[in-house]
Predict the 3D structure of the following.
Amino acid sequence: MKQLRHPFAWWIWAIALSIAIWRINSIAVDLVLIGALCALVAQRAPLTPWRNTFFWSLRMGFIVILIRLVIGILIGVPMPGNTIFTLPQLALPNWLAGIRIGGPVTTERLLSTFHESLTFAAIFALIGAATSLSHPRRLLKVLPIFIYEFGVTIVIATTVLPQIVASISRIRNAQKLRGATKSPLMQWRSIALPVLEDALARSLELAAAMDSRGFGFLKQRSSYREIKWRSFDLLFAFATIPLLTFGLHSTPLAIALLLLALTSTFALTANREQVRA
Amino acid sequence: MIEFSNVSLIYPNATKTVIEDLSFSVVEGEFVLVIGSTGVGKSSLLRLINGLVPHHTGGILGGDISVDGLSTRTVKPGGLAHLIGIVGQNPAHGFVADTVEEELAFSMETLNVAPDMMRKRIEEILDLLSLAPLRNRLIATLSGGEQQRVAIGAALVMHPKVLVLDEPTSALDPIAAEEVLSILQRLVHDLSLTVIISEHRLERVIQFVDRVIYIEGDGSSRIGTPQEIFKESPIAPPIVHLSRALGLKEVGLTVRQVRRETEELRTSLKSQPQTTTIIDETEVLNIKDLSVNYNGKKVLEKLNLSVHRGEIVALMGRNGAGKSSLLTSAVGINDHATGTVRILGKDLAKVSSAARMQLVGYVPQEPSDLLYHQSVGQECASADRDLKLPDGSTFNRLQELIPEISSDTHPRDLSEGQRLALVVSIVISGSPELIILDEPTRGLDYSAKATLSAIIKELAHSCAVFVATHDVELVAEVATRVIFIADGEIVADGPTIDVLLSSPSFAPQVAKVMAPSPWLTVGDVISAIENS
């Protein structure tokens, strides 16, 4: 029962949860979900380079919230309520009525902006978690063969991407020791160049290795350890249905159902040490 | 098995042919070594065998190559996958799966081998290469030697008739290298596999091979038995240089052979080499209670170490013993390190990055990590700017190291040795007290290594040098002191002669020949003969 779940099961699970939180649209539910995902990934994501995808997605969600808040303060539709502070307002022509730049910033406006972007962040986190937990390469294995045929690109991308992340930190560390004090833009350039060079060289090397091992030479492939769709995968994916159907009634009910869905996720998935299907 | 007839190769937009009119044939069960300086086309030659060149890289191929009757002109690399196994220079760059078992299965999956057959063959390979305990491990967590074994296993799983390996031991410590090569030797003898291999560290492979292909820089090449080739080839392992220097009738290829021929000499020479290592009293590097933990895994534990000015300290140890962790901690860029690192009494954690440049210089494993400008001149100018040095001082430094370099060259067009020299001159432009080099000889040929040795000796006049390496011959040549670490602890620390001679796998070839006399290099032996 406790196994690595089928990649499709993970993606159905992630999509169902995304739809649910999108429709429920509550800050509390979003926060509970993000917290629970952190625990889930820490406990269950296999120890592969893809594990970090989730943390990157969290970071991305955070940046989205920040950007959205800054824009929300500067530009926006006026919303009446408790004014926190007032920015100098830019005079705009008449035909732009309804939009303004600057002006009073109200608690309500901040809250609604935060709310909206938090939902985005939660969906990012779900996609990141699904990637970390299902492992893209396993997903690739279960995709139909005609997709696999143009899979060289995907295989290379899924292999080289984690290596790029590793080489960024390696190169940044090494360059710190060149003692250069550079503007952030120059620093970015000086890291990007060797990283891209590295990534390109590796991709070519990998493509050559795959080529000489017969990848794509035959139309038919066999599978060493087939990833089978089991009945538990169905149960796993369907654990999200109560949330989808009854979650809209009230926030406490939604939180309860979300926790129920995530508990069954915990119960049905293998621990992080188990890598094999 | 392999038939090259009048093969020539030229890459598009190149002015020089890589290989010109090369003809040879390799029979089943032969162990062939390809030698030549860096960049002469060894890798191209190996990749010609399964058609990666020119099918994958482009280039114009003249003549014909056939493997087991199939011409690489008409058959693409994928069509030869069942016949030729190929292992690239860095196996980690060629892995497509996450776990050992899946990696072994990959070729068979793509060639549609039936699942029960796959299972059988995987078990067979796991046993043959003693990989069974590792079958479910993530490849990324394996050591270099283990990864190399997995790569060989992944190539062997299709039961190929030919195995091609590009510098299989360049990233390995002496013991792991020995292991990989003896596996190859066994495959040649037991299964009559044909093995073609390229290698820079000839001292490691020379005793195993049946024939040698020597590619000279100008596109021409010679083929012959090791005896014939090494009689005059400028590229040769220390043992050959020794037998040439001693004027032996035949060039010796194995320690046993040369020992037999030098019996008289060894008994007649009694003088000890004078060990004249004058060590400055100034302590440059002081490491106290250094521990490094990665996610709860101990890499280094409570390490204490001090290095004095004028010393050249070699850091040796197995792959994954913690050498790189120690070096990155010593320069203060390891975030997982606890304990104190002082250079000339200054705590590295508390100095600014510009001040750090004046204390310690670091040459990373991939020297190109530090380079990002469009020409050698720009790289040097930017180093001058960063350290507020007068214009041209870094470039002058570089010209002292290698006079023939032009400032307009793109760093990528430099040879490995030149690129290393460029990085060294950038790093030493701040005139640091300590220079750290991580695995500098990887991919270097003998002449580049000689340049490197000269650079290191020159550096040691003004500062301390700390170098991590697997290359015992380099250590024998330059180091004054050797530190050996295993499992995160220092297990041996002493003068080079004592440490190297106490372990058979780390003793250089000359030392093995001349044992029990403590001579490490050909130079040592020559000066001993002259003095007696």
